[in-house]
Amino acid sequence: MKRPEVYLTREITPASLVKIYEQLGVPAEGRVGVKISLGEPGNQNYLKPELIKDLVRLVDGAIIESNTAYGGGRGDTANHLQVAKDHGFTEIAEIDIMDADGEIELPIKGGHNLDVDPVGQNLAKYDTVINLAHFKGHGVAGFGGVLKNQSIGIASIAGKAYIHTAGATRDAEKFMACFSENPPADLDVFAIQDQFLESMAEAAKAVSDYLRDKTGRENPILYINVLNNISRDCDCDAEPEAVNLPDLGIIASLDPVAADQASLDQILALTGEGRDAFAERLETQNGAHILQHAAELGLGSREYELIEID
User: Fold this and answer.
1) What distance in Å separates the CA atoms of residue 119 and residue 122, rounded to the nearest whole number?
2) CATH label of the domain that carries residue 100
3) 268 to 19, 74, 147, 263, 306: CA distances (angstroms)
4) Which of 33, 41, 151, 250 could link 73 by a cystine bridge, Cβ 3.0 to 4.6 Å?
5) Of 156, 71, 170, 153, which is closest to residue 114 (Cα–Cα)?
């Protein structure tokens, strides 16, 4: 089979973001949601409004997000919307916290761990999703890109707990208690790391399947990773480790697995302490397992053709 095309630009500007979106050759249709992370208060690594504004306005998109399961500054809709305002996103687009008024369950086909993916009910409003991820490390998942942005990122609070615990509970308080001094006796999230990564892949596929079935289109989701301000920690961390990798560019594809694999490959091709620290976290968390499982589910391919568009 032909390997999926992955596009790369070394420029990270509003114009290059629009250019690489257009390179995909699939115009966003209907109601468009642009899925980003709005960034935890205190974190400065998230994608900035001035970078994404031109693309969001070009597609007349709403910025879509879901509340966090760990609390923090984005654990409820009111505070999440305040963060959106504080970080400048309300100035460029409508903000839709998709689980503000409830959730729906998306069926999972062929999953090993989950049977459904609980997501914010407002996902049903959209015909196209631009999955616009800030690519970075992550203390639990190893790394975060478009697959994480489509799974944990779109899941409701209960859905996030369900994915993190590989289907054991939808109770966010019980999930977070796993990281406390008195963890639940019947739940050890550290022992099910691979199942958590698999559950993310299964949830990401559920979103893809849902939008394909809903729209009857092959590519209702477009995948873009921005490789700038790369820390070993996530944008959900209020105090992330320092950025110690160079800005590498923007990667886009119609294949989410290829997009994340290509982004990882760009980092792992580097040399130096920053690269080694990122690789150590990736290996410790077995982060690449999400790519393996997503490929097994048929969500995408780890092999790809890289095309530089500069």
Assistant:
1) 8
2) 3.40.50
3) 25, 32, 18, 9, 15
4) 41
5) 170
pLDDT tens by residue, 252-280: 999 999 999 999 999 999 999 999 999 99
| 131-158 pLDDT tens trace | 999 999 998 999 999 999 999 999 999 9
Residue 244 has pLDDT above 90, yes or no: no
pLDDT above 90 as % of the chain: 89
What total of structural domains would you count in the chain?
Answer: 1
Tell me how far apart the alpha carbons of residues 305 and 146 are, in angstroms, rounded to a whole number. Answer: 18
The two three-digit tokens of residue 86, written as one number = 């504080």
Domain residues for 64?
5-308
Find, among 266, 181, 270, 262, the residue nearest to 224 by Cα.
262
83 is written with which tokens?
A: 């963060």
pLDDT at 43: 77
The rounded mean pLDDT for the chain is: 95
What is the DSSP secondary structure assignment for residue 36, as one 8-state letter?
-
φ/ψ of 282, rounded to 5, equals -60, -45
Nearest CA to 50 among 81, 94, 87, 9?
A: 87
To which residue do tokens 């019947």 refer?
Answer: 186
